[in-house]
Amino acid sequence: MPLWKRNLVVVWIGSFLTAAALSLVLPFLPLFIEELGVNGRQEITTWSGVAFGATFLVAAIVSPIWGRLADKKGRKLMLLRASLGMSIVMFLISFVQDVYQLVFLRLVMGAVSGFISAGITLIASQTPKEKSGWALGTLSTGGIAGGLLGPLIGGFLADMIGLRPVFLFTSIPLFLTFLVTYFFVKEDFVPLQTKSMASAKEIIQSLRHPELILSLFLTTFLIQFAAQSISPILSLYVRELSPGTERLALLSGIVASAPGIAALIAAQRLGRLSDKIGAERVLFYALLIFAAFLIPQAFVTDTSQLIILRMGIGFATAALMPSVQALLRKHTPANAAGRIFGYNQSAQFMGNFLGPLAGGQIAGHFGFEALFLFTGLIVLTNAVLERTQTAVLSKKHS
Fold first, then answer.
1. Start and end of every Major facilitator superfamily (MFS) profile domain (predicted)?
2. pTM over cut 0.85
3. What CA–CA distance (Å, rounded) separates 102 from 96?
């Protein structure tokens, strides 16, 4: 088996375990904040957005640093750093006494996180370009599957053993990820000397299509902004749709997992489709589908309708990020892959930070309906901008 395929298997397992561990807490994060002494819908939604987004604010800042270090020292080191660091932080979160301590540790989590992004960089840099769509689509199923099972397990455990012990539970698979990566990931990496590494300005200038790369960064940001805007307050929306339910955490876990079901089924097929017809076309139509299933969530009247629409979101998501990553891989020099993917991760993390923060404020002041309408319009605008950029690129080649 080629080295890149063997690493794909190992990184897939690590991505699955990491995503499962991190998504365990999502269905009940607002409930945990409420348990820490925060009261009132607006206060809870605000603190949920802050606590959820804090990780991604710091991650957006440090991601280019880790990307530069990955180009210099290797991607495996970044995988080890992220998995071990997240395991330690998640263990400590189980002992927090107030919301300020929670937000602080979520900030630390952002500083050490990044397993999945480092894994993407490793696989993208090793995979033949003609196989990149399939490989990145396959890799995305690891995170999708982990994200699918994580909320279900988290919701079940929260109802059975309480909220706080779940954080202890999440540190275990993260540490297992560290061990699996240490013993099984093999990287044929030649370190770059610091003096031979180009600056960020030189990297952008060396790109064949810098406008396309920058537009892909923007697309990554807007995708995550829209997708994550509801995540930290999802359980509150479920409670509004299903008042009186005795299994709120578990039901929220099912709703949170719904996109993963469709994404898990579709990811590999859409990856092959991207290799066949072009990632540009897949990206555009996936954005339209994303908006088509996002906007109607403002008008649902029960949880079952929300689950169906969020499965549609998952179908679109299965095509979005692998298409962006395939385009980045196609138009990025190999010696700058770590930093370009690092910049893209910064854009993703900023979307993860600002999305929940804005989502909490919009939902708290204007209601959940306004949130879905606002983010749906953002995605539609993104589709138009991306289509315009690829059209300009096509004219240059004609």
1. 7-394
2. no
3. 6
